């Protein structure tokens, strides 16, 4: 069995966490043993495009309209709390809201008009 993604230059990816079965990297072995999946940049972009189509190019929390490049994927139920990468669990948010929210299940305080401190 061999896992070898294609790079944008078409030459394959060398020295990555992907491996061939003769020389598996410890990181790749960990991902295979734990069943953790990696989201590649194409899948991430595809999900972001679908979310823009569904909800518009604005932050889910503070409602700021932003260019797509300035929006991040935010998990409604954080991955650290068992959330998934499914579209149902993802929303677009600005960097400020995403960072302020951390792994909380609640909206960021500033988006509700609450001053922290």
UniProtKB/TrEMBL annotation:
This is HNH endonuclease. Residues 46-99 form the HNH nuclease domain. It comes from the Bacteria. Gene3D superfamilies: 1.10.30.50. Pfam families: HNH_5. InterPro entries: HNH_5 (IPR029471), HNH_nuc (IPR003615), NA-targeting_endonuclease (IPR052892). PANTHER family: OS07G0170200 PROTEIN, SLL1193 PROTEIN. One of its GO terms (molecular function) is endonuclease activity. The keyword Hydrolase applies. Keywords: Endonuclease, Hydrolase, Nuclease.
